[in-house]
Amino acid sequence: MRLPCSPAAQSIDTDIMESGQLSMGIVKPSKTHTEGGAYRYLENANGLLKATAIEDNIYLDKKPVRKAFGTAYLAILEAINEALIKKGLTRKELPKSVDGYMAAIKKHLSVNNGKLVREFDRLYETLHIAGYYRGLITRVATVKVEIKGTEDFIRKLLP
User: Fold this and answer.
1) Residue 80: which of 99, 95, 68 has the closest Cα?
2) Given Cys at both, which of 24, 35, 78, 101 links 95, Cβ 3.0 to 4.6 Å?
3) Maximum Cα–Cα distance for the chain, whole Å?
4) How far apart, in Å, are the Cα atoms of 66 and each of 7, 41, 135?
5) Tens of pLDDT along 113-136?
6) What is the b/e burial string over 133-143, where b = at least 16 CB atoms within 10 angstroms of the residue's CB?
């Protein structure tokens, strides 16, 4: 039996369920690419972290921190998708793998500048692999730095 929950909680649940697909190596673009979707994901990630207990500058429960990292990674993918759609790509042409995202960034978003590709790769390793998949990051300061890095990356794509 499932208890009813608020619309905000349902939104977070949906984002978390989508982030579960990441652990299986599947990257699915969302069915609706609405403006501001990346920021909504980022807000959800921050909400998960705010609700997590902290002691001695460490998050006590890894599970919501891992979910927050997965949701932050989805925020990055949504931002890239939105930027690619603004460049004229169709929903079917959006990347479906990490390598596809790297190639799309190189081809469409950072033609003369490899910094964006390197930053995406770093965020992928930190957010998705270390934070979400392996659950290695629990220090509050480190989590905040990575969430801020996520926001900075999104702002580069969606000013």
Assistant:
1) 95
2) 101
3) 54
4) 22, 14, 6
5) 789 999 999 999 999 999 999 999
6) eeeebbebebb
